[in-house]
């Protein structure tokens, strides 16, 4: 649940009604902020101020003082990723604007197109964290495709054949591979087979490209694990649509995996993940003959926070506690929200004394932390922790022992760690 910084969207539109609709829809996305220019003159004034670093621009091409799309070149000269919207669009104009390097065009036909523009901005935002590998033995083809991908805000890697591509994949977190079919050393079909031995279609999308595209070739590619196929030469519009569809599918899969394993409020793992992976971690400790510690952490007097300040403040306290835990513990340790204001930690390869020292340090860190409320007031919290560190045969029994330690910590005055062997 990372907090994103604001991203400014430039909207150039002379219709106040349409610009208000756009602004309301775009700013429904938490970190998007809209700046509106209603004329070419106002646009020039805004950009001359250098007050904003614009993430993207939505441009009407027919303004009273710029009726022939003059705004497009002007905004692109300021290195602002741009989407064009217009009431009508003929084929010649479509070709011209794509050659200028726009992301996309949208016709002003109804609410669905406003939704599309917002979706497009969200995709561009996501793309900044996505890595694409272009594999082609033609340097000019790679350069052209890279140019298109950079317009769409992707991070781009290159390889001249399948062998080089596998090295790039091993060294980097690649989300999408665009591969030509006919290459020396290792062609696109063989590369696809190699990739699928390591990465599933839910992890890496693969789009095949070929000048010699036909139904048999694309069907063979898809059977080998390809995600999509596109025939060269392609329209920029088709290229972007296919990439967007594949990236949206991967994003949807990631969201489903997140919802299946994470607690929606704190971003920590949920109980389901805890019991599945906690068992695996304990089993691994038996094989390696290493020690594991299982701890339960409970926020002291948390009911008072909800009663005195409201559940919204209580949720913010839990979110911050989750952030503290995420910062303090990393894999292979497991940190989860166990329920309500209670958290569970399964610590790997750790001695009894090390686990006590680590958890007592966490207790002190939380006790010293100042939770700032919406009205500026400062709230400080303490936690009680029970931890079990002796021979752990299964997670369920270890949690019962840790819960006994937590009960003892509460009974003996709270704000302490109690170790149960």
Which sequence of strands runs across the widest sheet? 2-1-3-4-5
Q: Classify the beta-strand content into a percent band.
A: 15-25%
- Enter the CATH topology name of the largest domain: Alpha-Beta Plaits
Whole-number mean pLDDT: 91
**CATH architecture grouping of the largest domain:** 2-Layer Sandwich
- The proportion of residues forming helix, as a percent range, comes to 40-55%
Find the count of extended strands (DSSP E, 2+ residues): 17
Notes on the structure:
It is a single chain. With 421 residues, the chain is α/β, with parallel strands linked by helices. It folds into 3 domains: 7-125, Response regulator (Rossmann fold), CATH 3.40.50; 129-261, Response regulator (Rossmann fold, 3-Layer(aba) Sandwich), CATH 3.40.50.2300; 271-420, 2-Layer Sandwich (Alpha-Beta Plaits), CATH 3.30.70.270. It is 47% helix and 21% strand. Strands 2-1-3-4-5 form a 5-stranded parallel sheet, sandwiched between helices. The protein has a 5-stranded parallel sheet with strand order 7-6-8-9-10, with helices on both faces. Helix 15 (395-411) links the parallel strand 16 and strand 17. Helix 1 crosses helix 5.
């Amino acid at each position: 649940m990372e907090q994103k910084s604001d991203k400014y969207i430039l909207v150039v539109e002379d219709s106040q009604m349409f610009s208000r609709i756009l602004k309301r829809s775009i700013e429904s996305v938490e970190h998007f902020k809209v700046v509106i220019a209603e004329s070419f003159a106002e646009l020039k004034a805004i950009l001359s101020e250098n007050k904003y670093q614009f993430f993207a621009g939505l441009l009407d091409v027919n303004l009273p003082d710029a009726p022939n799309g003059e705004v497009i070149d002007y905004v692109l000269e300021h290195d602002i990723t741009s989407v064009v919207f217009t009431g009508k669009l003929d084929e010649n104009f479509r070709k011209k604007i794509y050659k200028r390097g726009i992301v996309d065009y949208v016709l002003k036909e109804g609410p669905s197109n406003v939704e599309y523009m917002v979706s497009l901005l969200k995709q561009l935002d996501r793309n900044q964290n996505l890595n694409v590998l272009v594999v082609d033995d033609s340097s000019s083809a790679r350069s052209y495709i890279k140019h298109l991908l950079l317009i769409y805000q992707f991070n781009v890697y290159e390889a001249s054949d399948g062998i080089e591509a596998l090295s790039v994949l091993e060294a980097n977190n690649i989300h999408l591979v665009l591969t030509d079919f006919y290459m020396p050393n290792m062609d696109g079909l063989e590369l696809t087979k190699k990739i699928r031995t390591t990465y599933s279609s839910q992890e890496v999308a693969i789009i095949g490209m070929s000048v010699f595209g036909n139904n048999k070739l694309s069907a063979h590619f898809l059977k080998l694990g390809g995600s999509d196929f596109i025939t060269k030469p392609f329209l920029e519009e088709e290229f972007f649509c296919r990439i967007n569809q594949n990236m949206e599918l991967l994003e949807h899969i990631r969201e489903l995996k997140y919802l299946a394993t994470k607690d929606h409020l704190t971003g920590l793992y949920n109980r389901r993940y805890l019991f599945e992976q906690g068992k695996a971690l304990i089993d691994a400790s038996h094989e390696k003959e290493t020690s594991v510690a299982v701890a339960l952490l409970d926020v002291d007097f948390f009911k008072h926070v909800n009663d005195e300040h409201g559940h919204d403040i209580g949720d913010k306290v839990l979110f911050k506690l989750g952030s503290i835990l995420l910062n303090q513990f990393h894999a292979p340790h497991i940190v989860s929200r166990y329920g309500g204001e209670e958290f569970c930690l399964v610590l790997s390869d750790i001695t009894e004394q090390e686990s006590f020292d680590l958890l007592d340090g966490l207790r002190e860190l939380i006790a010293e932390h100042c939770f700032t409320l919406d009205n500026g007031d400062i709230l400080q919290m303490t936690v009680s922790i029970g931890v079990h560190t002796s021979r752990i045969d299964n997670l369920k029994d270890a949690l019962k022992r840790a819960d006994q330690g937590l009960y003892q910590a509460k009974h003996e005055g709270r704000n302490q760690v109690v170790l149960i062997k």
